[in-house]
Amino acid sequence: MDLTLAERTFLVDDIESAVTNECLGDDEGIYKKFEDIAYKMIDRRPALDADERKLMANWLTGLCDCPEFFDVETTEMRRKLAAKLWPEKEVG
């Protein structure tokens, strides 16, 4: 999975916003997972494993299902990233 610097930055910013605003639900463990993924994205190592890529793709896709809260460019970037993170998932 090759993400550009701009894509990695977008994803890290999205993750940090969700963690800071406590938008990930009630499971405290999910916040640690997202923080770990953000650190991996920043450091570019170790690479995200399949479960992490799938988690991110599903999260991004879920955010795309709420277009009333996000602008078109943000939604399109999330779709693009979800497709790159988990190509097996059809993102529409």
Describe this structure in words.
With 92 residues, the chain is mainly α. Helix content is 66%, strand content 0%. The protein is built from four helices and no strands. The chain has helices at 5-20, 28-43, 50-64, 72-85. Helix 1 (5-20) packs antiparallel against helix 2 (28-43) and helix 3 (50-64) runs antiparallel to helix 4. The two termini are 20 Å apart. 17% of the residues are buried. The model has no long low-confidence stretch (mean pLDDT 89).
Layout of secondary structure:
Layout: H1 5-20, H2 28-43, H3 50-64, H4 72-85
Compact summary:
The chain has 92 residues and is an all-alpha fold.
Keywords, separated by commas or semicolons:
92 residues; mainly alpha; 4 helices
Computed CA radius of gyration, to the nearest angstrom: 12 Å
Q: Tell me the fraction of residues in β-strands, as a range.
A: under 5%
Taken from the alpha-carbon principal axes, the silhouette is globular
Main sheet summary: none
Low-confidence regions:
none
User: How many beta-strand elements?
Assistant: 0
Count of DSSP H/I helices: 4
Question: On the 0-100 scale, what is the average pLDDT?
Answer: 89
Distance between the termini: 20 Å
Structural class: mainly alpha
Please give the share of residues in helix: 55-70%
SSE series: HHHH
